[in-house]
Design brief:
This protein has 465 residues and is α/β, with parallel strands linked by helices. It has a domain of 143 residues: DNA Cyclobutane Dipyrimidine Photolyase, subunit A, domain 3 (Orthogonal Bundle). The chain is 48% helix and 7% strand. The chain has a six-stranded mixed sheet, sandwiched between helices. Strand 2, helix 1 and strand 3 form a beta-alpha-beta unit. The longest helix has 22 residues. It is globular and about 70 Å long. It starts with 10 loop residues before the first strand and ends with a helix. The relative contact order is 0.13. One of its GO terms (biological process) is photoreactive repair. It holds the Pfam family DNA_photolyase.
Length: 465
């Protein structure tokens, strides 16, 4: 496959201004938290060389990102510690500021000749970029560079897509020309001479977490999943070296471990989806396993980015469901439920269903859950809560609280999938209406569900030991 710098479709000018005199080019890192295969970083490096300036990377760290807790911060900061070390080896400066991301960007932009930022799809991320763009308008070049999907969202489609089957041909039309290796750009000017006030110290991540005012209700899970690019690539290589030949057969077998475990690294931008796919294609250029992996890594994931981008007002709400789903759920909202549980009972895995309880325990103790069990987990919350609106809300809140990859386009879309998003009407049933139904008998037919429960028991024992 070809090697090129940055595809023009990834680049968007957020101001009309030209570069100005300054001490450095600033890359405001936010979504793409990595020093490898990062189009925004390489675009900024190229611009720094053109302007004969060093490159500075700045990251704004706020204690109160909505829905985030100690589990999320620990994983993210482990990744940023690796970023700082990797950038230093390339002669690129890095500063971690204890401030809102947009305020950090504007403070560092005061001495910048030009500013580059990566792409964010959620409301708050878009708001930060808009705030900075409005402040820099007419004063400083400000460029956004997409690096966290394979095919840029607007290029793939100009509207919210109905399902994977509608977006798939649009993505496949462009996919291969975006699967290109991105080499690091050597920097002509070293950032060692820059006079930048000291930022937060990443040399001791646990100590840094202790110094922050964080929600500590959910603890870190570093014994299962370490943050950072190296750890993410190690997890992927483990799959490619081991169980990838069983990937298609085991995708819906939760008792197995033939998975990439990349979702949390993709959430924080610690690995490029392009690089992950290229690593896979290098080892397994064709076959059913490869096609299924690319379907999950590109089509299914980028369908969720399409969803949040074209549903900006309420992608994280029940109101974003398709009309047919809200109608059928409303018609069955008053149906009698055999079991009804409180949120506390659900979080404590205190239901009558040992399979569901195992899934909840996996989530709480590891920050992850096998994707097949995520579907069952969500469907049962719909069934076991008083109203679909309430079930939808607490499904999303529990999801975001415990999963390392929560608060993400995938999370918002997948929670709403439980309630009919990106799906079609099925046979009508009590409580579910025409939304898709799942039950314990289906688990027993399709997988070794008791083997999954035993696997979770071992994971919990490890977590508590």
């Amino acid at each position: 496959m070809a090697t090129q710098l940055i595809e023009p479709a990834r680049v968007r000018k957020l101001t009309d201004a030209a570069p100005r005199p300054g001490d450095y080019v600033l890359y405001w890192m936010q979504a793409s938290q990595r020093a490898e295969h990062n189009p925004a970083l390489e675009y900024a490096a190229r611009q720094a060389n053109e302007l004969k300036l060093p490159l500075l990377v700045g990251f704004g760290l706020t204690d109160d990102y909505p829905g985030a807790n100690l589990r999320h911060y620990r994983f993210m900061l482990e990744g940023l510690a690796e970023v700082e070390a990797s950038l230093a080896r390339r002669g690129i400066g890095f500063t971690l500021r204890h401030d809102d991301p947009d305020r950090t960007a504007l403070a560092l932009a005061e001495d910048a000749a030009a500013v580059v930022v990566d792409r964010g799809y959620l409301r708050l991320q878009k708001q930060w970029r808009q705030t900075v763009a409005e402040s820099l308008k007419g004063e400083c070049a400000f460029t956004q560079v997409e690096g966290d999907v394979v095919v840029p969202v607007e290029l793939a489609s100009d509207k919210r897509e109905y399902a994977a089957r509608t977006i798939r041909p649009k993505i496949l039309k462009h996919r291969d020309r975006f699967l290109v290796e991105l080499k690091p750009t050597p920097l002509d000017r070293d950032a060692g001479g820059l006079s930048i006030p000291d930022g937060l110290d990443l040399s001791d991540v646990p100590a840094l977490c202790d110094s922050l005012t964080l929600d500590r209700s959910v603890g870190p899970v570093s014994q299962f999943f370490e943050g950072g690019t190296t750890a993410a690539k190690t997890r992927l290589r483990s799959l490619l070296d081991g169980g990838f030949r069983n990937y298609s057969a085991h995708r819906n077998q939760p008792q197995t471990d033939d998975l990439s475990y990349l979702s949390m690294a993709l959430h924080f931008g610690q690995i490029s989806p392009v690089e992950a796919v290229l690593m896979t294609l290098e080892r397994f250029p064709e076959g059913e396993n490869t096609e299924d992996f690319l379907e999950e890594a590109i089509v299914r994931r980028e369908l969720t980015h399409n969803y949040v981008h074209y549903t900006p007002r309420d992608y994280d709400s029940y109101s974003a469901l398709p009309d047919w789903a809200r109608t059928t759920l409303a018609e069955h909202s008053g149906d009698e439920r055999e079991h009804v549980y409180t949120r506390e009972e659900l979080e404590n895995a205190a239901t009558h269903d040992d399979y569901w309880n195992a899934a909840m325990r996996e989530m709480k103790h590891t920050g992850y859950m096998h994707n097949y069990m995520r579907m069952y987990w969500g469907k049962k919350i719909l069934e076991w809560t008083n109203t679909p609106e309430y079930g939808n809300r607490i499904t999303r809140e529990i999801n975001d609280k415990y999963f390392l990859d929560g608060r993400d386009p995938n999370s918002y879309a997948n929670v709403n999938w439980v309630y009919g998003l990106h799906d079609r009407p099925w046979t009508e049933r009590p409580v579910f209406g025409k939304t898709r139904y799942m039950n314990a008998n289906g688990l027993r037919r399709k997988c070794d569900i008791d083997g999954y429960v035993e696997k979770v028991d071992r994971l919990v024992e490890r977590a508590e030991g």
